[in-house]
Specification:
CATH superfamily of one domain: Beta Polymerase, domain 2
Oligomer: single chain
GO molecular function, one term: metalloendopeptidase activity
Distance between the termini: 49 Å
Largest sheet: 5 strands, mixed
Membrane topology: Multi-pass membrane protein
Shape: globular
Protein name: Peptidase M48 Ste24p
Helix content: 55-70%
Number of strands: 9
Strand content: 5-15%
Radius of gyration: 31 Å
Keywords: Cell membrane, Hydrolase, Membrane, Metal-binding, Metalloprotease, Protease, Transmembrane, Transmembrane helix, Zinc
Organism: Accumulibacter regalis
Length: 637
């Protein structure tokens, strides 16, 4: 299902949910039941196959082997019938007993965080929810509870609480507990058992759909296609209920820690997330140019930087940005202002002052003396993971710095050199204002598309709506810039949040989806070559044609002739796609065509191309096209 179709279905279902809540719940119940019917049919087919095999075995036993002689006489027919039975049985076994991967992280024992486990025990007792079997600590600014069936579709759930260390370092204990209670509320169903059940079912179908992408045999592909049809529709129909369940999970937070702590947790998490992406990580990245190795003590840097860099003005700026964001139609999580309003809270004028980094973080409260060792453990792992990339980036920036120094000494630069200089400056000196360089380049080359695009983005980052005009010019000249351009414009209007911006953001999002649907259609057509493809003489420029001829001639073993044709796409006739048709030598031992096609397909070509053998199915009719259009070979013995 395409994104545009999904959004249209979600919008239609949301209108139904608002107009007829009871009717909506009945439809959700019906589509959930359909999912169980699908799973039941798959399992029933497997059981039927098992019964068939068992019946054959019993028949052989009770007839004294006469049935075995009968099956032996049938010969290959038995094998032909047995293959699909075996494939379906194996596929169903894989489905029913699929081992979903366990979440990864550093397991926390009860003796390492007694205070945390005491809060979890109290939460479970108060809500009557399920047990948390494992607690994992990760190197993230996030928290989640993952329910993993130990026996695949047969159940026996294992509940894992995942806590990001950076999140715990940013929140107070009560605020962190509010986040945990929200995640736990999805499982406990404290304020809606049916909604909690649907929430878990959405996660289960998501995992099944993702897992089905890896199935390759005949029987598995049939089931995978069924899953890919059902799962998006189930998600669309349950979308409104899933969003409602986010509000219900917030109510669990309010009951456990109070509305004040729950509201502060929502606001502080939004502030911390923006600071991490806009302040903390850029500061780490800026160290690459001067330092050949990743810094030690990154966890301590995170905690200290919040106290030093995240002052009241910065907190207010990040909070204002979070307040301006509207609810994303593709995200079940409501926007911050909607979640605050639902629990009777708001980001008042004193919120930024009140949300100063806590004197004692949740990480310090829960892990105590274990915290330095845990932080150091994640730091070592991070340094090991990024060491090679860090070193490569460090060397690259050194080369770019030398490039900047070289170009800066020249009195005159070409347009391309001006662009190279600008890009190198942006990498080596990210705090420098690029606007004068962009204006200078565009004064000399007004149609320089990369510079126009970069200026448009920079203008929008600064709140200047004139950047939209730059993006529009680039998109008009180069449609491939549509997706990134639409994304930047959508973020600008969504972030600014003034009158009319919601409609503008929606218009850019719609434009993005239309282009995405179009590109997906073209890419789907480009991914395969049908036997009835429309072919025409190629229009490849002579320089690239020489490259193609050279490649074919250099790999001409067993090739008698090679023809180059252009394929006309139904979705985009202007798109350039090509087909190389080969004829193999007549007097060879065996059919060399498949090996030649495989060899040529593995090479790098200067265009998108399919390699086919003219003598083999299903491309025999291509010979008629070549003869009818009198296309000359690009290679011949």
């Amino acid at each position: 299902m395409e994104a545009q179709q999904f959004q249209a279905l979600v919008a239609r279902v949301e209108r139904l949910a608002e107009a007829d809540p009871k009717g909506y719940v009945l439809r959700v119940f019906a589509i959930a039941a359909l999912g169980f019917v699908i799973l039941g049919l798959v399992i029933a087919m497997a059981m039927l196959n098992v019964a068939l095999i068992g019946g054959v075995v019993l028949l052989v036993v009770f007839t004294g082997g006469k049935a075995l002689l009968f099956f032996a006489k049938l010969g290959k027919l038995v094998i032909v019938l047995a293959i699909p039975v075996w494939l379906m049985l194996r596929t169903t076994w894989t489905l029913v007993f699929a081992r979903f991967p366990r979440p990864e992280g550093r397991a926390i024992r009860r003796d390492e965080a007694a205070a945390l486990f005491a809060r979890l025990d109290a939460m479970r007792e108060r809500t009557g929810g399920p047990r948390v079997h494992r607690v994992l600590l990760t190197d993230e600014l996030n928290a989640a509870i993952v329910q993993r069936p130990r026996l695949g579709l047969l159940g026996w759930q294992e509940n894992t609480l995942i806590l990001g260390l950076r999140l715990l370092q940013a929140l107070s204990e009560d605020e962190a507990m509010a986040v945990v209670a929200h995640e736990y509320g999805h499982l406990a169903g404290h304020h809606g058992r049916f909604a909690a059940f649907i929430y878990r079912l959405r996660n289960a179908w998501g995992r099944l759909q993702a897992m089905s992408q890896q199935w390759n045999d005949w029987g598995s592909r049939l089931i995978a296609r069924l899953f890919r049809w059902y799962a998006p529709r189930f998600n669309a129909y349950t979308f409104a209920l899933a969003r409602q369940h986010e509000y219900l999970a917030d109510r669990t937070s309010v009951e456990l820690v109070g509305a004040g702590a729950a509201a502060d947790a929502l606001m502080r998490t939004g502030i911390a997330a923006r600071y991490e992406s806009e302040g903390f990580w850029p500061a780490i990245q800026r160290r690459i140019a001067a330092e050949a190795e990743p810094p030690a003590g990154r966890g301590l840097m995170w905690r200290q930087s919040q106290r030093e860099a995240l002052d009241a003005d910065a907190r207010q700026r990040y909070l204002d940005a979070a307040r301006r964001e509207a609810t994303d139609p593709f995200d079940t999580h409501p926007a911050l202002v909607d979640r605050l309003a639902a629990i009777g809270a708001a980001a008042d004028g004193q919120a930024a002052e009140r949300l100063a980094p806590p004197a004692v973080s949740a990480a310090e409260s829960w892990f105590g003396t274990q915290l330095p060792a845990l932080s150091a453990e994640f730091d070592r792992r991070w340094r090991d993971e990024v060491a090679d990339q860090w070193k490569e980036r460090h060397e690259h920036l050194r080369r770019q710095a030398a490039r900047v120094a070289d170009l800066a000494t020249r009195t005159e630069l070409s347009d391309d050199e001006r662009w190279d200089y600008l890009c190198a400056v942006e990498e080596t000196d990210p705090d420098r204002d690029l606007m004068p360089l962009l204006e200078g380049l565009l004064a000399a080359a007004p149609a320089h598309l990369p510079a126009l695009f970069r200026r448009g983005r920079l203008r929008l980052d600064r709140g200047d709506e004139a950047g939209i005009g730059d993006l529009e010019r680039v998109i008009a000249a180069d449609p491939s810039a549509t997706l990134p351009g639409c994304d930047i414009a959508w973020q600008f209007y969504r972030r600014r949040g003034t009158d009319g911006d919601a409609a503008q953001a929606e218009a850019w999002q719609k434009r993005w989806m239309e282009r995405s649907t179009y590109e997906n259609t073209v890419n789907a057509e480009l991914s395969q070559l049908p036997a009835d493809a429309t072919l025409a003489p190629h229009d490849l420029p002579e320089d690239r044609l020489d490259i193609v001829r050279h490649i074919v001639a250099g790999n001409a073993t067993h090739i008698r002739r090679a023809y180059l044709l252009r394929r006309i796409l139904t979705s985009n006739p202007a798109c350039h796609d090509y087909v190389i048709c080969i004829e193999t030598a007549r007097f060879t031992l065996g059919n060399k065509g498949p090996a030649v096609v495989k060899r040529l397909a593995a090479l790098e070509w200067p265009m998108h191309v399919f390699i086919v053998q003219l003598g083999g199915e299903p491309f025999k009719r291509f010979r008629k096209t070549i003869d009818k259009q009198k296309i000359a070979p690009i290679y011949a013995l």
